[in-house]
Amino acid sequence: MSATFVGMPPFPTAARQALADTQLRHNLAHATGTIRAKRAKVVGEVEHWEDLRLAGAAVKARALADLETNLVRLEESLTAQGATVHWARDAAEACEVVARVARSHDVDEVVKVKSMATQEIELNEALQAQGIAAWETDLAELIVQLGDDLPSHILVPAIHRNRAEIREIFRSKMAGSGRPAPDDLTDEPAVLAGAARQHLREKFLRAKVAVSGANFAVAETGTLVVVESEGNGRMCLTLPEVLVSVVGIEKVVPTFAELDPLLRLLPRSSTGERMNPYTSMWTGVTPGDGPQEVHVVLVDNGRTRALADEVGRQALRCIRCSACLNVCPVYERTGGHAYGSVYPGPIGAILNPLMRGQGDPQVDSLPYASSLCGACFEVCPVRIDIPEVLVHLRSKVVDAHRDDRVPKAEAVAMKSTAWAFTDAKRLAAGERLSGLAGRVLTRVGKARLPGGRATAGRLPGPGAAWTGARDMPAPPRESFRAWWRRTDGGRSEGSGQSEQKGGE
C-alpha cells in the first residue's frame, strides 16, 4: 500500500470534503448503526457493567502509574521465555528492527496480523522501500491494501466501502498480488470472504516471517495476547518460523489475572460479541510448537510524551475497541480519513496531539473535531474522559498562540469582550449600540425564530463562519438596565404581574 496520511489538510477542510460524499455517509451510517445496536444489546446483558468498566480502568491506570517497572519486568519475562526484546524510541527505529529481522532470513515478503501499531509507524511503506512486501491478512485490511486506500476505522478499516466497491477491488486488484478473484465473484459477503480466504491461503503456507501487534502484554509472564474474529491472526502466529511483534509500551498489564476484566470488556465494546472467536496467547518460544524465533519490539513513538500530560495520559488506557467512533456524531458524518491518522474519531482526536505534540495545523485542529456531547465517555470500556481531554487540548492550542505577533480573530474578540465587560460605562455603551442594532434588524429582518423574534442574519467578516450554520437572534431592542430604569425594577409593569411573581 503506497497511500499515507502525510500531508492531509486540517480537519475542517477534510471534513467538508467528506460531507459532500453521500455514498460515504450512507455507508458510515449503516455500519456504525449496526455495530452500536449489537454492542448495546450485549452490554445490556451484563448486570454490573459499570463495575466492570471501573475494574478495567483501574488495571490500565495501575500499569501506567508504574510503567517503567512493568516494562522492565516484561522484558525480563520475555527474555527468560526465549524471546528477543528490542526497544524503539520512534517509528524509524521500530521499522528498522523489523526490516533487519526480515533481511536476516533473506525473505522478500511477510504476512501481517491486523495491527494499529504497525500502521502508526507506517511499517508497510518502510518494508516496501527495502524490497519486502508486507501482506495484510485481516479481511478489512486486505480490502484497504488492495484498493491502495487508507484505513478509516480502528476495528473495521474498510467501513467506508460497501459490498459492490469491495467486489470491484477484488476483481481488479487481487491478481496483481497473488491468486486472482474467481470470474463469477458476486458481492455476497460469504462469497467475498471466500475469495479472500483462497487469496490469502497461499501466503500463509509459504510465509517464513510474520508480523503482529498485541492487544495486551503481561509483564508477569511475558505473554502477548491478540484478540481477533477471523482466524487470520492465529494462522500468522502459528505457521511461520519467525514472529516479530510490534507492541506499544502502553499495552503492558502487570499480571495475568488482570487480563480478566479487559478480555470481558473488549469483545462487547468492539464487535458486540459476548466473547471473541479467537484469543491467541504466546509466551516466548516453545520448542516444536509455533515460531521458533520470536522478536518483540517495544515502541514509544510519543507515548512517554502523552504520559507526561497529567490530564491527557488517561488516553493511554485505550484498548482500541472503537466504541467511541461508533457513537460519535462527528465521525458518523465525516468518516475516519478526515482525521488524517490511523487513529480516527474521538480517541484519535486526543491521541494524535498527545503523542505527536502541537504546532502542526492538522494536529491542532483535531481537538475541535467534536461536539463535546459526551457519548464517547459513556461507552468507553476503560472510562477515558475524552471530552475532558479535548477541552484540555483546546486550551493548549489557544495558549500556544497567545504571543503570536498577529493575533487570531477569536483572541481579538475575547480581548475586546473583556475590555467592554470590565468597565460599567463601556458595557452600558455597548448595550445601547446593540439595542440600536436590534431595532434595525427587527425592521429589516425577514427570518424569524420560534415566537416571532427576528434573527441577525448572516454576519460579515469572521462572524460569517459562525452564522453560516446557526440562527443568531437579533439583540434585544432594550437592554436590561434600560428596562430596569423604565419600570422601576419591574414594579411599574402592573400590580397583578408583580403579585404573581411575589407569589412564585
From TrEMBL:
Region (Disordered): 452-504
Residues of the 4Fe-4S ferredoxin-type domain: 315-384
Transmembrane segments: none
LUD domain: residues covered: 73-299
Biased composition (Low complexity): 494-504
Sorted UniProt keywords: Iron, Iron-sulfur, Metal-binding
InterPro entries: 4Fe4S_Fe-S-bd (IPR017896), 4Fe4S_Fe_S_CS (IPR017900), LUD_dom (IPR003741), LutB/LldF (IPR004452), LutB_C (IPR024569)
Iron-sulfur listed as a keyword: yes
Pfam families: Fer4_8, LUD_dom, LutB_C
Keyword ATP-binding tagged: no
Domain Lactate utilization protein B C-terminal: 403-486
Designated name of the protein: Lactate utilization protein B
Organism, as annotated: Nocardioides aquaticus
